Each structure stands twice: as structure tokens, then as C-alpha cells.
Amino acid sequence: MAEHSDVRGGVLPPSFARERPTQGPLPGRASLRAELVRLWLRWFLKPGKRAAGVTVEQRRRQVAAFERWTPQPPPRATIAADVLGGIPAVRVETPASRPDRQILYLHGGGYVTGSVALYRHILWRFANAAAARVVAIDYRLAPEHPFPAALDDAAVSWRALIAEGADPGRTAIMGDSAGGGLTFALALRLRDEGASLPAVLIAMSPWTDLAVSGASLRHNADADPMLSADDVPAFARLYLAGSDPRNPYASPLYGDPTGLPPSLIQVGGDEILRDDSVRMAERLRTAGCAVELEVWPRMPHVWQTFASMMPEARRAIARIGAFVQRHTGDSPAG
What we know:
By secondary structure, this protein is of the alpha/beta class. 34% of the residues lie in helices and 14% in strands. It has helices at residues 32-44, 56-69, 120-130, 149-163, 178-192, 216-219, 231-240, 274-286, 311-328; strands spanning 78-84, 87-93, 102-106, 133-137, 171-176, 200-204, 263-268, 291-296. It has an 8-stranded mixed β-sheet with strand order 1-2-4-3-5-6-7-8, with helices on both faces. The protein is globular and about 45 Å long. The chain starts with 31 loop residues before the first helix and ends in a 6-residue tail after the last helix.
């Protein structure tokens, strides 16, 4: 596999060449860098008992603090603030991005925190690996805007992207964590409404079960180096605001995925949300949908965001890019 070099001191990876990942088995063990990241997450980020009584506003301030430390994209990657269907958004592309290939990106944060600003260091990598233009939206957050506000914003943004001229057959919907669950929920809603579906769905460590019934929430509570199992039901309550946690538009695990496009799901083996991915993949397979599930040993939640530090993150992104290209056509732009 030809991985990207890290960007250091504003140096651009050579010619922004498209990453072409190796096809084959996943790594059997974590790299030393990955183990160091796990250790840092466990000691400095995993909330545990230290998070008791932390308010939503305090969590958002913590996330905003991380935004200030988020690396900038390299010089030849462009990131521009915009709106999509009235929803705040950023558009990202690199010299490798094809104008006819698009990705709609839905960020994570448990539906109560997060923003596209926190992803500026990673969106260009997705754009480059997939040779696509990426548009990421700042959908409304709970508890001020509970379910289905995030889904409504995602649906409006998708329709606006298509109205701009994006070809659904050359477009992906992609998200991480809550945004990964939102990716599947959006696909279910678009199918049910008879709207155009994307060519492919990409979900990284998706949260697909707001009923919080996955066994990995208990079994991996100690092993997960990043997330606290106690936070998951609290975030679910804030987003649902009394709605049925098994509503498929909130928890796509409980929907019928028949007819959804090919999907790629990546999740870490030690995550508390691992079973949200495993069970979602099983639902897709049972419904006759094409799905690839990758369970990466010892990877933390949405480890792809640590691409500047971890070789596994760069490998995962390369595999995502190859999947998008394979299902949206890889011939040179005319």
C-alpha cells in the first residue's frame, strides 16, 4: 500500500497521489504508535468517574478546546465555509479530488457535541483517498434540537447536494460515531421517501442502537480506551427526548435495510460500540445488502482521526478511499 506521508511543517505529501491500499487481511496487532495513543486516551481523555456531573455546555467547551489544537490541512488542500440547503457546511478538496465525485460527511459527537471544525485535519484525507470533493455539515445538536433535527438537516443537505448537480451514483454518504448511525438513518429515510440513494455508505464506529442493548457496552467497558459506557445512555436520552429508541430513523439497527447501497463499516475490536457495527452488518447481510465489516484489533473509537500519528488510521482511510472509488467509478475525469 502506498500510504500518505505525514504532513509536517506544511510539507505536502508528494503530488497528492491517490492512496491505493493493499487488499487483504487487517493487521493482527497494533503498532507501537497505536498503543501509545491508546495509553494517552485512557489517561487523559476517557472520562470515567471524572465526567460525573459534567454538563453538555462543559462538554462542548472541552470539544471547542480540542478544535484549537486540530492541525490545519496542508497548503494545497482547500477548505471553505459554505451552506448546503441552509445548513452550515464546509467544502473540502485536494488536487486529487474529482469534480464529479462527492462525499456528504456527517460528524460524530453523540448528537450533543462536535462540529466540522474538529475534522479539518481529516476531511482532506478522505477527499484525497477517495479522489472526491467532501462537504461536511454542522447539523443541529441536542438537547436544544432533539430527534429528528439532525436527520432533518442531513436530509435537507442531501437533497441540496443533488439539486446542485451531484450525481447520486457517484456520491457517498459517510459519517463517524453518531454521524455513522445518522448515515444509515438518512439512507433509510431517503429510500422510504423514494429519493435518490447514494452509491455507497461509509460508517466509522457507528452508533446504530440508541436503545443501548449491545453486549459490548458491558464486555468492553474496561477495554475501551476512549469512551465511557455511562455516557452512551445519557446522550441517547438527550437526543431522543422521549422518542422511541427503536425508531429506525434514530436507531437504524431496528430498521429494514433492504435496498440500501453497498456499505463499508470500520470499528475497533475493543470499542464499547463494537456490537453496534457487528449487528448492523448482520442486518444488512440478512436483507441481501452488500456490506464489508472491518473489525480492527485494539483500535480506539474512530481511530481514523489519528491519521497524523497512527499508521492504522492512514491504512483505514486508504481502504475507505478505495471502497468509494470502486463503487463510484474509477475512470479518469473527462
